């Protein structure tokens, strides 16, 4: 008896910015770009999730295509000619960044500032009265915080909580248009919702709208220092499933826990104990 | 609903020794000296078998290897065991009796690709949430899932069919499934003939268990039993998963064998996608046994009674190894009561709160002449010790490996410095060995691991580098150049009888209902288990502020609550034939009338194990945590009229 092998995958050749690249059938344009080392910005793309095509920041130009296409979801086809930095693609990316940055707080979105500069985006051009999603931060439990000032409505948290991973369905999109928000049922506090505090939404959030309470408190106090943090992957100390935890440690204290997305046990997912149940090791009496 | 936050434990940051009945701070030198001296005194007076070690299923493989070596080499006894005894020892015993190896036979990935998944006595949705994500993937791909559980658990909510059996009737249900399969001609005759033995006797033994009889005994409708039987037998790939609902019974090994029988009957073992998966409850309970921290096996799960294997270890360690099994945890506790075990080295375990019939356990530990506890907290057990040694938390303050439920050995890495004077387990063991005449010194965990690899064929090919590169490797891994399939016992399907090896025996089993009988005085069946956000005796999980935590409750069906005239939140007295506790009522419509549920997470507030019965499985020694007879009384008598 042997293990069934995956069917062999043909290689396709496509052209990215004039460079020929061969990728396995089923790969996306983004995969091809990664293979050639071509940087394409992404926000709503998640390596463990089905693409939602929400943010449009990864759009590229494909020869023969009427519209720009999202690189993260569009499958590569043989002979495809892709331009990642054509004038049209870059202009679109610039406007997307301007619209997002004028209405949403991108201050904790990794690389956002860099992209804004790279594409010459001017979020301030909509003036001081531009509509924003500004609202109070939701702090309703001791484990994680929801700051929807920073939410770009990428839906990754909804998918992680829903049928793609956690299957708890504690959150969904409520409202329409600019008033759409990610919400629990009837906008109840998490403590009255179906939330089981696995934090798998925090794991996939691209902007820091969802964050550990420990991170939120440290940022508020001005003590959060990512440059000083170490990241060490170890194994959870609770049940026997063997989930891989990456411990983010600052000044000998665990400040946040993530899980490797390519791990065969977790695929980046944890439960409440693995994600938040670390405090016992750092409960040390002050006179200790 | 009352929201309760249990008192958390603070880390131990320096050694403690007992003086005039009180524990006081000590230096490492003094504490290690006292610990070693006590061991020496007892061994000199009563021989090495007066010593017992409880090794830590929470610590690394490397620590467990050194711990069992300490027991066998420094002390000279096989009295080493761990809390595997309170959970999955019956799984190990049952699987090794059938297949010669005690591990689960499948991988998580295979669950995703099964057609039928049976979750038997397993609240995995809450107790093993990330395993259950693999089950959910399978369900999303079209697998049918059957949940067999007295409670309608979170797992059952995702099932095609929930088979709510009476507590302790697993064997009748399994037998009825088997009989239905045989009578429908759905058994795998080719596999049975080629790979198993004892089918005729087995078939005869299940013959009385018609669907009707089984329905009467188990409470599961005949039609549901029939449906499970047909679905399981007809599946191309079927996974049979179980947890403590199977193993925490007085006849637990028989329960496990009853499930294994079903896999043999249908050929659902030894193939990709088909197999048996006991879900282990602790991060390294699989590894602890694999490392030989059990009384009947040497590292690599090799039998102590085999003279050739013993000879290999005697050569490697340069000491004679006793040619007999040591005492298991259950027997150790009995031997303490008899005065045969007089000293105990207890690493990272909290039997005072985790054992069934906890009051009895306290009594036995207090009879010891010398108790050394090594832990990260001053647990209730540590408070009884003569010497307390503060340890590093293995999972984040040590380097090493853990082995998970799918036999995957994965690297554990040090991310934090241990607080105060707390030290690594292996350092402590070596310091004690040195004081007892063995000059041990390991230069890090990798050196221990390489020593283990040299004596355990199943781990030989797992270098630290490979474990890192491949994100863990499942045993067996005999070669550094190759990987074995992710499932075990493919040999059973080999056309060549020589390669097929030892045939897998069917077990002929008898139904034996729970020991603690229900009667008019104790009419309710108490079963215990875990909640999503908490863990075992709560020593770890009380440390974080879970919004889900509501403290200990007695969970009652709405029917029983109405009959008793109690309301949610009301404190009631719960009594068994052994003890009595007070806890608030929680009403759970997922419970059937007559069945009540408690956890063991808050023993400092409500000592649930004062109620449970220490009726143990004669083969594996696991106690019947899942079936106590209790009564529930109102604290304030209801006013007449």
From TrEMBL, chain A:
Domain 4Fe-4S Mo/W bis-MGD-type: 229-285
UniProt key word NAD: no
Keyword annotations: 4Fe-4S, Iron, Iron-sulfur, Metal-binding, Repeat
Organism superkingdom: Bacteria
An MF annotation (GO) of this entry: metal ion binding
SUPFAM superfamilies reported in the protein's UniProt record: 2Fe-2S ferredoxin-like, 4Fe-4S ferredoxins, Formate dehydrogenase/DMSO reductase, domains 1-3
2Fe-2S ferredoxin-type domain boundaries: 10-88
Keyword Metal-binding: yes
Matches recorded under Pfam families: Fer2_4, Fer4_Nqo3, Molybdop_Fe4S4
Coiled-coil residues: none
4Fe-4S ferredoxin-type domain residues: 142-161, 187-215
InterPro entries: 2Fe-2S_ferredoxin-like_sf, 2Fe-2S_ferredoxin-type, 4Fe4S_Fe-S-bd, 4Fe4S_Fe_S_CS, Mopterin_OxRdtase_4Fe-4S_dom, MopterinOxRdtase_cofactor_BS, NADH_UbQ_OxRdtase_ferredoxin, PSI_iron-sulfur_center
PROSITE patterns named in the record: 2FE2S_FER_2, 4FE4S_FER_1, 4FE4S_FER_2, 4FE4S_MOW_BIS_MGD, MOLYBDOPTERIN_PROK_1
Annotated protein name in UniProt: Respiratory chain oxidoreductase
Organism: Planotetraspora silvatica
Automatic annotation (TrEMBL), chain B:
InterPro entries per UniProt: Asp_de-COase-like_dom_sf, MoPterin_dinucl-bd_dom, Mopterin_OxRdtase, Prok_molybdopt-oxidoreductase
Domain Molybdopterin oxidoreductase residues, every copy: 11-434
Entry GO terms, CC: membrane
GO MF annotation, one: metal ion binding
Stretches assigned to the Molybdopterin dinucleotide-binding domain: 524-628
Swiss-Prot/TrEMBL keywords: Iron, Iron-sulfur, Metal-binding
An example Gene Ontology biological process: respiratory electron transport chain
Transmembrane segments: none
PANTHER family from the UniProt entry: NADH-QUINONE OXIDOREDUCTASE SUBUNIT G, RESPIRATORY NITRATE REDUCTASE
Record's protein name: Formate dehydrogenase subunit alpha
Organism this protein belongs to: Planotetraspora silvatica
